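User: Fold this; C-alpha cells only.

Assistant: Input:
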Amino acid sequence: MFQASTADIFHTSQPTALNTKRAWILIGIWSGFLALCLLARGGRILIPLFPLGSVAVGLFLYFRTPALYVGYTWWLYFVGSLVRRMIDQQSGYVTPGRWGTTALLVASISLITLVKYLPKSYRRIGFPFVLPLLAVTYGCLIGFITGRLDLQFAIGALGWIVPIVFSFHLVVNWQQYPQYRQAIQRTFVWGALAMGCYGIFQYCIVPEWDRFYLNNLSASSFGKPFPFEIRVFSTQNSPQDFGVIMMAGLILLLSSEGVIRLVASGPGYIAFLLSAARSSWLGWVAALLAYLPSLKLKFQVRLILSILLIALMVVPLTTIEPFAEPIKQRIESLSEGGDDYSLQDRTEGYQNLLDIALTEFIGSGIGGRLSRQLPASAIGGSDSGILPLLFTLGWFGAVPYLAGIFLMVYRILTSRGNRQDPFSSAAQAIVMGVLAQVWLNNIFAGEMAMVLWGFLGIGVAASQYYAHQRSTQMTSYFMTDSSSTNLQHEP
C-alpha cells in the first residue's frame, strides 16, 4: 500500500540557512506587529489583517521552509483563538467566522500539496486519503443541497477537509520526517508551557477578553466568568478542544528531553486538570497505555522515570488551593456517575439519538438541515463523534471515511522501526488517545480532527521514512555482499 519507491516523486528541496533566517525574521515581525496592535487596542484593524497576514506568512513558510510551516500552523491552532478573542473584545462585537478560522486558513495552504501530488500518488500513498476526501466531498454536496451556501458553510466544510489535507501534506513529505518531527516536538513542548501558564492565569484572573467571549457565547458548561469558577479553556475555543490539544502536548513532553519538559509539565498538567475535560483525561490514560508497550525496553525505563519525576512535581501542586477542590470534585465524579447530571444528560441524549442515527443512510450533509425531528431529550447526544458522523455523512459517507482512518491506523500499528523512535511511538499513542474519545467528543471536525489527522499523518510519514531506510540498508547490504563474492571469484 505504501511503497518506498515514492522517493522519486515527492522530492522537496531542503530550506537554506538564509531562507530559515528570513522566515524567523518574518515570524518575529508579524508577531511583534500583532502584539503592538493589541497593546494599542487596535483590534479593529486586525479584523481583516490577522487572517490575511497570517496566510501570507504561511505561504512564505510553505514554499521556503516547510518544517517551519508545520510548526507555524500548529502555533496558530494554539493561540489563534486567543488573538481572535482579544480582537473581538477590543472591537466590541463578535467578528464573522469561527474563532479558529485563521488557523484553519493557514492549514488550508496544504491544499496546494493535495492538488499537486494526489493525482500522482493515489495508488501508492494516497489511497487512504481518497476515501475520506470522497466522503467529505459527498457531505459537502448533500449539505449544499439541503442547506445554503454561505460563510458558515464554507468554514464548516474546511473544518472537515483541511485536517485530512494537512495529514496528506505530512505523508507526502515523508523524506523530511526528521525536520518535521523536530518542529512538531519543539512546538508542542513550548505550546504546552504557554497554554498551561495562560490556563492558570485564566483560572485565577479571567481576563476581560475571556469574559467578553463567555458572555457572548452563553455556554453554561464553561462555568462562570469569575476567578476560580471557570473551566479552563486556555487559548482554545472550549475546555474539550483545549483538553485534546493539551493531551497531545503532555504525551509529547514524555518523549522529549531537556529541562523545558519539566518546566512545562507543572502548568501543563494543572491547566489540563482545571479544564475538567474528563474525556480528555481518559484519552490521556488511553494514550499512555498505548505508548508504553510501543517502546523498546530502554525507552520504557526512561518513560517510567519521567512519569515518576513529573508526578513528584505535579501531585503536590494539585493538593493546594485554589486548585485542589475543583480537581478533587471532578475526579470523584468519574466514580460517582449516578450523581453526575452532565453524564446523565449525555447518556440519555446519546441513547435517544443512536437509533435514529443508525438508520441515516444519506445524511444531512455538512451544514445541512436534518430532515428528521429529533426528541427534545437528545441534546446531550451531540457530545460524540459517531452521531455527528452518521447524521452529517450518513452510512454512504461514514463507511469510506472510517475506512481511510482504519487503513492509516493499521499502517502505524504494524510499522517496524518505530520502537526506536519515541516521537513516532508518541504520535501513535496520541492517535489512540483521540480515538478513545470518539463516544464522548466529535473528533472528526475542527481542532480535534486536526490533532487526530495531524498525528496520523506524521505517524505514517515516520513509517514510510523507516521503511525506506530499511530498504536502502538491505540494498546496500546485498550490493556489498555481491561485490565481495565477485572479488573472491576473480582469477
